[in-house]
């Protein structure tokens, strides 16, 4: 079912990239000579797992005395814009960049990234086959890896076992969305300040559009049919949108139209939601005593479904090397260090096993200390990632790669526009039909461009 965009098609830069090119600020060029030798400039997304890597980076410098690391750590939206602009224009600002499986195959096809297979093959003990197959394939182009994963995720549902027991409810291992809606209605408790469920409503193609699109998929909808006809006003897409908006408006968190992953995570960890559907990496935060008041109180089950056997998404933050990087071997040595089996153990021993980057290496799920710390969520995470394919999560063929995103450059702009419409519907500023009609117009413009180049 999965497909890629035709190689003969002239690739166009999305609007968000054009904007980034205009606003890109300069930074020190990659490969500058530091006082101790070579300096590698590494662009990464600011989140807890990456912060742990930066905290441990002195270990790498100790073992590579001729190399100094310089990190450029930015919030996700800023990081995407800066990394995209630099890589697309071959600016050379960065030796290593953090990108996802959304960018990797597109950028590899464009010739923007270094093929990592020769480096992997020459690295004894790196064990490429240890990567979970769905993750490895999502970072590959024409059989070669162009990025190596730092952590991977699918999506699943967290629920408060104590609240379910108190209400006399039992969570199935593989729930349906209708069951989840019923549970949310019964567990909604305004007096106690507990929402029935937390769902993202914050605008952004990587925010509310991620969980929402998995609901669209399992309800039988799709963004485009095989001929690139937009499908956002189809009965299936409309039913999914009405369900999502109604659920979050009736039983979701306060201020849902501006709640993203971080906001939902805070609410759930502070005991303000009975359920939370989101990325599997949430579990580490939920079970961390330093950030959560509900440690040990949660159960984790597969992403809810409607018409499909599975509905979880597939995503990975990974490290790639821009084609123009001058210090390729040093850059690879850092990439190898940060994605190796030994790094996983280093994080666990230094910061605690709940802080381990999950969802990439199969060997992680054989470490006794990790399995003990992550016993509530390790297996659901692994199963979610393994089953994350279009064949399992969609009902009809589509012309684009991706599960929770449409794997084309234009989706950064299209998805953000549609997410703004969804947010407006959640906020009660417009009806679902009004939001979908406007969204359909946006999608038709994109689809027409692809039909014209078929």
Automatic annotation (TrEMBL):
<dbReference type="Pfam" id="PF01547">
    <property type="entry name" value="SBP_bac_1"/>
</dbReference>
<protein>
    <submittedName>
        <fullName>ABC transporter substrate-binding protein</fullName>
    </submittedName>
</protein>
<keyword id="KW-0732">Signal</keyword>
<feature type="signal peptide">
    <location>
        <begin position="1"/>
        <end position="30"/>
    </location>
</feature>
<dbReference type="InterPro" id="IPR050490">
    <property type="entry name" value="Bact_solute-bd_prot1"/>
</dbReference>
<dbReference type="InterPro" id="IPR006059">
    <property type="entry name" value="SBP"/>
</dbReference>
């Amino acid at each position: 079912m999965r497909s890629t965009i035709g190689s003969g098609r002239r690739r166009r830069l999305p609007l968000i990239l054009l904007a980034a090119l205009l606003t890109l600020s300069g930074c020190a060029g990659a490969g500058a000579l530091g006082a101790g030798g070579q300096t590698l400039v590494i662009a990464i997304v600011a989140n807890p797992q990456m912060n742990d890597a930066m905290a441990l980076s002195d270990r790498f410098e100790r073992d590579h005395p001729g190399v100094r690391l310089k990190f450029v750590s930015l919030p996700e939206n800023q990081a995407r814009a800066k990394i995209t602009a630099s890589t697309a224009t071959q600016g050379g600002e960065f030796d290593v960049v953090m990108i996802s499986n959304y960018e990797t195959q597109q950028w590899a096809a464009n010739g923007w990234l270094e093929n990592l297979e020769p480096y992997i093959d020459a690295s004894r003990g790196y064990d490429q086959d240890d990567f979970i197959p769905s993750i490895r394939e999502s970072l590959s182009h024409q059989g070669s890896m162009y990025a190596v994963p730092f952590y991977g995720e699918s999506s699943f549902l967290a629920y408060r076992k104590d609240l379910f027991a108190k209400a006399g409810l039992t969570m199935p291992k593989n729930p349906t969305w209708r069951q989840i809606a019923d549970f949310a209605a019964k567990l909604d408790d305004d007096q106690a300040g507990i929402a029935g469920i937390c769902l993202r409503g914050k605008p952004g193609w990587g925010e509310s559009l991620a969980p929402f699109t998995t609901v669209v998929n399992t309800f039988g909808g799709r963004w485009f049919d095989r001929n690139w006809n937009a499908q956002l006003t189809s009965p299936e897409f409309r039913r999914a949108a009405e369900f999502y908006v109604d659920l979050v408006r009736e039983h979701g968190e306060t201020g849902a139209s501006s709640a993203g992953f971080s906001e939902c995570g805070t609410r759930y960890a502070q005991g303000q939601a009975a359920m939370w559907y989101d990325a599997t990496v949430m579990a580490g935060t939920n079970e961390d005593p330093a950030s959560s008041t509900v440690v040990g109180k949660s159960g984790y089950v597969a992403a809810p479904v409607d018409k499909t056997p599975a509905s979880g998404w597939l995503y990975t933050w990974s490290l790639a090397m821009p084609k123009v990087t001058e210090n390729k071997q040093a850059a690879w040595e850092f990439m190898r260090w940060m994605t190796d089996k030994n790094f996983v153990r280093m994080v666990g021993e230094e910061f605690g096993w709940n802080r381990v980057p999950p969802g990439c290496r199969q060997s992680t799920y054989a470490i006794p200390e990790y399995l003990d710390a992550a016993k509530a969520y390790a297996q659901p995470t692994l199963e979610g990632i393994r089953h994350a394919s279009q064949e399992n999560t969609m009902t009809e063929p589509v012309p684009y790669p991706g599960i929770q995103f449409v794997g084309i450059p234009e989706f950064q702009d299209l998805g953000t526009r549609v997410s703004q419409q969804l947010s407006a519907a959640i906020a009660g500023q417009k009806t679902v039909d009004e939001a979908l009609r406007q969204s359909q117009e946006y999608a038709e413009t994109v689809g027409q461009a692809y039909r014209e180049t078929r």
